[in-house]
Each structure stands twice: as structure tokens, then as C-alpha cells.
Amino acid sequence: MLLKNARILVIDDDTDVLIAIRLLLKLKAKEVVIEKNPNNIHSLVKADRFDLVILDMNFKSLINTGNEGIFWLNKIKSIDPNLQVILITAYGDIDLAIRSLKEGASDFIVKPWKNEKLLYAVEEVIKSKVKDQSKKWNPKVEGTEIIGESVAIEEIFIKIQKVAPTDANVLILGENGTGKDLMANAIHEASNRKNGPFVKVDIGSLTESLFESELFGYKKGAFTDAKEDRKGRFEIAQGGTLFLDEISNISLQQQSRLLSVLQNRQITPLGSNVPIPIDIRLICATNAELSELADEEKFRKDLIYRINTVELEVPSLRHRENDVLLLTNHFVEIYSEKYSKSKITIDDSFISKIKKYRFPGNVRELQYVIERAVIMADSATLYETDLVFSPIEKYLEKETDDTLNLDEVEKNTILKVLEKNKGNITKSAKELGITRTSLYRRLEKYGIQ
Question: Could you say which DSSP state residue 345 is in?
């Protein structure tokens, strides 16, 4: 979560303090709620989902010991133990500061504060909340963890946490190799259907003749080779999750058949006239941009709306720079164990070379090159010479200052489109051919306010 998405509650009996903090934070945060009476804390925290509380330590008391602040801090923690609290007081007693931190406060600010210091404290607490959430929810999928601490991947984690408990259909967007299948499996594992089956179908590879029999099943004698009844993937996924990968590659005729099934929530196997009700959670994935799917000559808009209750865009590895070394260390550990190698270390030259590469094949390519490096290494240390990039992908180094900077080109393009559309995010995203989520992420990346 970024500060711009945070909801903050400020509690202080001094109106001037409330107004000052609200003016400071309202342009940075999603919402700032102010309250003078601490007796309203219970109803406010119960009724709304706040990300942070800024709490005064002294309220109309003859003795300003900070005990009131500790009392109300404990009240907040009893209602929501995970709610972050910054305590603020005019009395810079170090013992009181230590006590408040032991009681569960996230930070302690002394009045009068410097705006920069207060903003920094708020931003750090919000960041720590995201990290705590990502550590608490780090699902294992087929023996592989989803690794990441970058803002881009943490935002995906939080979205999955929100959407997983529902039965909403999900469309996962992202380049090849970004891990869309891992995300789909993660949604299933975090859902109420986790004890049911997770069935994956590479739907784009199905021919017209195989499409219906594979998805909907068939009865014995339905066609020449149908020697026995066979369930389709929809029926196999009953009570669980059906994951249709590469959904953008199916024909208009296949789209029409799929739409009918999703609308009616039932299938009819080939060779049968008896419909079978289906109870599945649908997740689809594609490497195509949503704007490409909106071309009705290639894809039905009514099907897009049906499969796209919620969309998740998995960021490319180029937008997850902080995660590259995490993933590298992770894969080195996995393949060292797999191939019975002694503990392998990584030389600085190896790290330097890997940081310069843009990984057009994303996480899948990184996994491939690390596996190869571990297998072919002549020693217990990986050097620059051990790092050979995939010949499948075009070698792309990150741009240096004396070459054409693609990031700068992208930033300038975004600025021009935003100016043209007078800051309208929806119109700008549509013109750029990306999702609103992608545009917000780029605005954050380039510091565009």
C-alpha cells in the first residue's frame, strides 16, 4: 500500500493540531478523518477500516503524564491489533516513548513537529504495514514461493488478499514469464475453495474439434474414438477453481460457446442432452493488453465483462528491480539443492551483470539462466562468466545515460497524454493502451503527481 491509498484517523483535542495535520496529509493520503473526542475511538475504528491512527497522548487532563494516550492506544489495539498507531505529544519524555512502543505504538512524535519528520514517520509506518502483510501472506505454489518486496509485487499481494475470499471471476494480465499461473494458483490457495481442485487448461492450444470435448466432456459413442464417458475440465473443477490460460487465443466461435456456459452456469457434454450444473470459480490469463481484447473483431466484449470482474496485472521483472536479487538468491538455493551442489556464493561481477540486463523473458528467463549457471559452474562461486542469457530472447541491457533512455521516453509520453486529457486517468490509460493500474504504477515510478 502506498500513502496515497491510505486512510488515516487523527485524534487530538486541539483543533489547531487537527487542522494542521489534516492540511499536511490530505494531499498525500486517500482520506484523513479528524476527531476531537477520544471517546469516539471505539465507534470510529469499528465502523471504518483505517490504515493508521495518529493519537495525542494527553486529553484535558490536569496531569499530563501521557497515561491517557497509553490507555487509548490499548483500546485501539483491543479492537484491531494490526492497526498502526503513531503517538504524538508535547512532552518528549524518552521513558514514555519507550513505554508507548512496548505497548504497541509504531512510532512516537514530539510536538512541535517538523512536517518532513511527520510525513516520513507516516510513510515508514505505511510501508512497514505492507511488508508485514506480504510476510504473513507468502503462499507456496507447487513448491515455489512467490518472492518479492517491491512496491509493484506487494500491491499484487494485497489485491489477491482482497479478491481471493470472494467468488469473483479474475482476469490476470501480464507478459510471458511473469508468473500468471502462480498468481492464479495463489488466489485458489487463499480462497474458500482451496480444498477443491485447481484445474489449469492452456485453452489457447485447443483446436476447434478438441475445445468442446476437452472443456465440457463427452459421452460414450459421441464420436468415433469416444469409447467411454469422459468428464470435461469444467466438471473436473467442480467445487474448485478453473484456470483458463491464454484466453485471448480462442476463436469467436469458441468465445460464444464459453460465454453461454458462463451465463447459464451449466454444461452439456457431447453426445448428451442432459445439462450439468457447474460450480466453479473462473480465473483467466492472457499476455495481451486489455485494449487488444476490446477489439470486437477478435474478442467479444460481453465475454470480457463476464471473465473480468476483477483484473490483476502482474508486473514485468523490469518493474521489479528490487526483486531481481531476491529471486536470484532464491533460485540459486533451489538449484544448488536440486543438483547436490555445495553452498554456492555469488560474486559481485555476477550481480553487476545481472543488474544490467532487462530480462525480456521475465522471471521464467531468470529462473532458466540461474539453473544453467548452477549446473555449469566450475566452482562454489558464481562469476560473471557463469551468467549466460537465454539465446531465445534478444539481449537487452538496461539503458545507460549515454544511450536512448526508454524510461525517459515513456515518462515524457505519459506526461503529454495526461496534459492532453487534462489529468483524466481513465482517458489517458485508454489512449496509452494500458490499464488504470498500470498507469498509476508508472506515475508512482516516475514521481508524477
Answer: E
- Among 258, 281, 313, which residue terminates a domain? 313
CB 316 within 8 A of CB 174: yes
Q: Check whether residue 332 and residue 249 sit in a common domain.
A: no
Task: Identify the CATH number of the domain in which residue 413 sits.
Answer: 1.10.10
Count of domains for the chain = 4
Q: Which of 419, 426, 332 is nearest to 380 (CA)?
A: 332
Cis, bond preceding 112 (omega within 30 deg of 0): yes
Q: Are strands 198-202 and 345-346 parallel, antiparallel or unpaired?
A: unpaired
pLDDT digits (tens, 9 = 90+) for 355-394: 888 888 999 999 999 999 999 998 999 999 999 987 776 5
The Cα-based distances of 293 to 18, 93, 434, 439 in angstroms read: 48, 61, 12, 18
- The single residue listed with the C-alpha cell 447459464 is 264
Vertex 181: Cα angle to 373 and 336 (nearest 5): 25
Same domain, 151 and 296: yes
User: Is residue 398 assigned to a domain?
Assistant: no
Round to whole Å and give the CA distance between 305 and 372. 42
Which range of residues forms the domain containing residue 258? 140-313
How far apart, in whole angstroms, are the C-alpha atoms of residue 167 and residue 81? 28
For 300-327, what is each residue's pLDDT tens digit? 989 999 999 999 999 999 888 888 998 9
pTM of the model: 0.59
Residue 1's alpha-carbon distances to 108, 131, 140, 179, in angstroms, are: 22, 9, 22, 21
- Closest Cα to residue 246, out of 303, 171, 167, 339? 171
CA 257 to mean position of chain CA atoms: 31
Query: Residue 241, exposed/middle/buried by CB under 10 A (0-12, 13-18, 19+)?
Result: buried
Of 281, 313, 345, the one marking the end of a domain is: 313
Residue matched to cell numbers 541491457: 397
Q: Which helix (H) or strand (E) holds 312?
A: strand 310-313
170 and 280 share a domain? Answer: yes
Q: Are residues 172 and 191 in the same domain?
A: yes
CB 214 within 8 A of CB 204: no
